[in-house]
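Sequence, structure tokens passed on for absentees:
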Amino acid sequence: MNKLFLGIFLLASICLTSCLDLAPNLFNPTQIDEYLYDEYADSEDQLPAEYDLLAGELTEFTVESELDGITNTIYGAYLGDINTISEDTVILYCHGNSGTMDWYFQRTKLLYNTKAKSHYGVLLFDYQGYGRSEGNPSEAALVADAHAMVNWLANQGLTGDRLYVYGFSLGSIPAVELNANPKHLTPARLLLEAPIGSIDAMAEDGSGLSIPASFFADLGTNNIELIKSVEQPLYWIHGIADDFLAMNTHGQPIFDNHSGVFKFSEKVPNGNHGDTPFILGLEPYLESLETFLLRKI
């Protein structure tokens, strides 16, 4: 009887895996012909005019991202004055698993207004296969593209002590990696919004069963473990009502495992996966960020 039950369970597990491949959930790219930024009609979170950029404060550019001998052109947008990167502090924004830079532009405008509206520079970019960027998305490509953007910033004169990395959802993969295993510059701070804890946690949350991620997709992300190698200060914000990457199984274990010099958490009641800064409120969100970013370490 036990053998029969085990056989039925394994068969059911195999059937489930054919329906619950996590890769489409991890990568949901959109390709476009041009970027619209503030003119993008589908953005749910248009900011008030007081957050608008001034003339000359948005620069679109490209870099070359190399992975396994293949080079692809990656698109980025810099909010601020590219001529003063050698003097400014810059936030590198790694976006989520769907949409393009257009969809995340309002979020980066918010970050640009951090520090009592005296402005950090903010760099937003599209991964391979997203927006106008060439190539195909993968975990390795996310990291390669982020490294390429850091290299661009370094070539503009940025130093690691003035580089902060912000990862939202999928963007937590390259964000944590850049801090744990820096290549061109060592970032000074790490900020995570609704991060992915691990592929195993995604598999378990998505299936209701404790099935290893290898049954679902050939993916290897484990920020819960990798964060142990991050010594930089950590900012974590997560919606308590997040129904995609649950706070208790993804963000909280990352926060708990971080043992760096300083960490700060912001748990937002009623915040879901994609709306937490706006549920918290624009000014409270900026004040929360400033509490972390302006702290002397």
User: Anything to note?
Assistant: The longest strand covers residues 58-67. The beta strands are 28-29, 58-67, 70-79, 90-94, 98-99, 121-125, 163-168, 189-193, 234-239, 263-268.
